[in-house]
Amino acid sequence: MRKEECRRVRGILYATHLLAGLIAGVAWVVLAFQKAPVQGLLALLGALVGYSLWILYCRVALEVLAALFRIANVIAPSPSDSQQQ
1: how many CB neighbours lie within 10 A of its CB? Predict the structure, then answer.
């Protein structure tokens, strides 16, 4: 049961951060297009590269957090975990 909750929370965090990155990228491109078309196109290219890196960063950060929580659970399991085993 606890693994399912952790997986669900991880998915929600991942989706939320990807959505935040997408909104930031779109806002940056829109503001750049308001200044000049060439600047907007450059911002669009930069946003695509930045969003690709943002996806990679979010995935790695969530995997590191998941590994840390698994390590912490092995080192000091909660009382409810020890009763289930």
Answer: 7
Mean local confidence (pLDDT), 10-35: 95
pLDDT tens digits, residue range 32-58?
999 999 999 999 999 999 999 999 999
At 19, list the tokens: 């959505």
Q: Which long-range contacts (CB under 8 A, 24 or more apart) does 25-30 make?
A: 25/50, 25/51, 25/54
> How far apart (Å, rounded) are the C-alpha atoms in residues 8 and 12?
6
Tell if the pTM clears 0.85, that is, is over it. Answer: no
Q: 60 with 23: CB under 8 angstroms?
A: no
Q: What is the DSSP string of 45-67?
A: HHHHHHHHHHHHHHHHHHHHHHH
